[in-house]
Structure formats: C-alpha cells, structure tokens
C-alpha cells in the first residue's frame, strides 16, 4: 500500500492532522515529542468514482455519492529539531521511519506559534518560512551521513575486476527505497569519477540529495490557517513550491461532528451543513470555520493528501472487475476494488497489483467503459474500469 509520512517539528500539528485523517486517536499535547513511537493508520485519497457515469451509484463503503476514497497508509512520527540528522531529539528514529514512505507531508505551523525547537511561543513570534526547507535539509544530511559511513565498502569493491560504480551505488541506496532507475537518473545529472576513491564529500552529498528528491518528494502543509496571521499564510503560499493551506483542527472538528450526527460533510468538501442541534458556542465556532473554508476552499487536509498522491506521485486509480458489463466481481459487488498505480502503468501492472498469480497468467484485458479489448501497452487512465482475463483463478 502506498505510504505517506507526516514530518515537521514538534507542535506543528502533525498528530492532529493524523487523527483527523485517520480517525485514530493519538496523544496530542502542547510539548515536544508527544509522539515517541510512530503511529500508523489508514487514510484515503479522494477521487471521482466511475459510478458517476452510470444511472446508479455503486454503493461501496468507500464511495459517498460518487466521491471515492482509496486507502493509503499514513505515518505520524516524532517531530524533528535542528541537528536531527546527528541524533538530536528523536532524530535518527524519525528519519529511519521515513525510509519506507513514498511521499512526505511537511506540516508547518503557519501561525508562527512554535519556535524552531517546537516549543510554544506567542502567535507570530516565529517565522514559519524558516521551517520550510528544514525537513529537506535534515533528510539530505542524514542520508549523506549514511552514504559517508558506507562509502569505504564501495571503495573496496572498486578494487575488484568488473566493478561498476552504478551497480555499487544502487546496492548502497536500495535501503532508502531507491531503484536502479532512480540511481541512474541521479548519476546522469552529476559530474562524477568512475573511481569512488576520487569522490569528494560534495559529490556524496549531491548523490544523497538527488536520491532523496526522487524517492521522497515533499508537499508543505501550512497548518493552523484558522489562527495564523494572514501575511504568514500568504508568504507561504507565494513560495515556489507546493504549499497547501490547512486547518487540521478544523478537519478534526468536522469529522467529529459527523460522527456525532449533527454535521453533513465528506472529507475534501469545500463546505459543510449543520443537520442537528448544536450549542451557541459550537455554532459560533462552526461559523468561523465556514469562513476559513470559504476563503481557502476547504480545510486542506484532504487536499494535501490528494496532492501528495495524484500530483507529486503522479498516480492514477484503476478498478479491476470480473463482469465487464455490470462492473462487478464474482459476488456481484460493483466496483469492489480501487488500485493506485503510477501514471503510465498498463493492464499487466494492474493484474500484478491484484495478485502475482493473476499477473503471471495474464492473457488480455478489456476496457469495461468502452467494452473493447486493450493491448498490453495500453496506459491506464484515471478512473479506468478493467476486466483482466488470466489463466489464474
């Protein structure tokens, strides 16, 4: 399953974001390192369900009137402080947890109410711009340290006949989630010596930075927009990188309101409706949240998850079925499964995503929307419904 990791300094709102996105309760407190052990939960990317093209909605538990929610893993780990790559705070533990994540969501306190150590200060006392590149720098330096500590092994290997530096570097970086294609792409952009003994510290840092950029893309969440100075939010949004304005606390309040039965809201909606009895205090708070959502187009939590999945990772959603006319599985369930695949994936890739035996026995596939057979090289599009014909049962 695709994995998203929440990163940021303590008190930026990671655990509130996690709780809102997963509806799993975790410790949330106003002091650093509330999160010690990583929290793992399931959240969802939101997309349009193919059932919108049919007369009736599919009725799937993850489809809310055509809003399809596709499961992804969400990881919330301990906050970072300066020097984390050297082990400060819980830095090494935090960074180790990131190795298996596909994409990073950097949660920043847009209110400037926490200093660089994650300690509470007055609103606006800290410049949140300083927190933007913080995660990238710590990750780059941490990975560069790993490369440095293991470079002697690469140098020893270079004395053997048939040594290939690209293969050696690939072996070194696979533990960080890099493929041979990632390593090859990074090396193509570098001017480096074939002799690892000649590599400088700067060369190894460039390798680490390039691999991190390819394997751990980052989206910034400007959190706490409901209490942040407007100029702070605007400066963050004006940066030349993806920044999503958000109120994790607002999203959490909405989801709890839905659970309590007095709100109508689906994650990612731009607004909500009050459907039950609320107190005057709740009505006032919801009114303030309504204004924030109207200004920014929602709470931003779902928008951040979607940006990570569909924009940074460039995923598409595909739906395998057994009955191409009814779009059902063998039990009659309509659109029973949704898979996230890299843009450019083929029906064969989808077959393997369903099960390795299905992939091994792949014969052909049918686009259930057009009722036409598609070739092995056909590139799946967002929302494709596909019947896979395989020798495997």
From TrEMBL:
Keywords: Nucleotide-binding
GO MF term set: ATP hydrolysis activity; GTP binding
Domain OBG-type G: 2-266
InterPro entries: Beta-grasp_dom_sf, G_OBG, GTP-bd, P-loop_NTPase, TGS, TGS-like, YGR210-like_G4
One Gene Ontology CC term in the entry: cytoplasm
Superkingdom: Archaea
SUPFAM superfamilies: P-loop containing nucleoside triphosphate hydrolases, TGS-like
Pfam families, alphabetized: MMR_HSR1 (PF01926), TGS (PF02824), YGR210-like_G4 (PF08438)
Signal sequence bounds: none
Family listed: Belongs to the RelA/SpoT family.
Name used for this protein in its record: Redox-regulated ATPase YchF
């Amino acid at each position: 399953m695709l994995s998203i990791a929440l990163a940021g300094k303590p008190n930026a709102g990671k655990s509130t974001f996690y709780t809102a996105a997963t509806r799993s309760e975790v410790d949330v407190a106003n002091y650093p390192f509330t999160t010690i052990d990583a929290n793992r939960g399931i959240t969802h990317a939101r997309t349009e369900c193919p059932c919108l093209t049919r007369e009736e909605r599919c009725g799937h538990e993850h489809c809310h009137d055509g809003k399809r929610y596709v499961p992804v893993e969400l990881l919330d780990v301990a906050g970072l402080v300066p020097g984390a790559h050297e082990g400060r705070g819980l830095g090494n533990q935090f960074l180790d947890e990131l190795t298996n994540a596909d994409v990073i969501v950097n949660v920043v306190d847009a209110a400037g109410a926490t200093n660089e150590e994650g300690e509470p200060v007055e609103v606006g006392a800290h410049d949140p711009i300083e927190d933007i590149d913080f995660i990238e720098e710590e990750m780059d330096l941490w990975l560069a340290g790993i490369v440095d500590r293991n470079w002697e092994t690469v140098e020893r290997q270079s004395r053997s006949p048939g040594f290939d530096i690209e293969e050696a570097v690939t072996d070194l970086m696979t533990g960080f989630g890099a493929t041979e294609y990632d390593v090859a792409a990074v090396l193509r952009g570098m001017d480096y010596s074939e002799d690892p003994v000649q590599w400088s510290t700067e060369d190894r840092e460039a390798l680490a930075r390039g691999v991190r950029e390819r394997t751990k893309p980052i989206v910034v969440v400007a959190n706490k927009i409901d209490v942040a100075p407007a100029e702070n939010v605007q400066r963050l949004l004006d940066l030349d990188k993806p920044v999503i304005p958000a109120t994790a606390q607002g999203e959490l309040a909405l989801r709890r309101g839905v659970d309590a039965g007095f709100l109508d809201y689906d994650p990612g909606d731009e607004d909500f409706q009050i459907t039950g009895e609320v107190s005057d205090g709740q009505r006032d708070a919801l009114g303030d949240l309504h204004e924030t959502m109207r200004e920014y187009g929602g709470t931003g939590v779902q928008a951040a998850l979607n940006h990570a999945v569909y924009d940074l990772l460039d995923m598409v959603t595909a739906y395998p079925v057994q009955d191409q006319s009814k779009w059902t599985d063998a039990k009659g369930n309509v659109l029973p499964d949704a898979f996230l695949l890299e843009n450019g994936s083929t029906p064969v890739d989808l077959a393997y995503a369903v099960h390795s035996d299905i992939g091994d026995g792949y014969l052909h596939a049918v686009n259930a929307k057009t009722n036409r057979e598609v070739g092995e090289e056909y590139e799946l599009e967002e929302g494709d419904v596909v019947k896979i014909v395989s020798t495997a049962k």
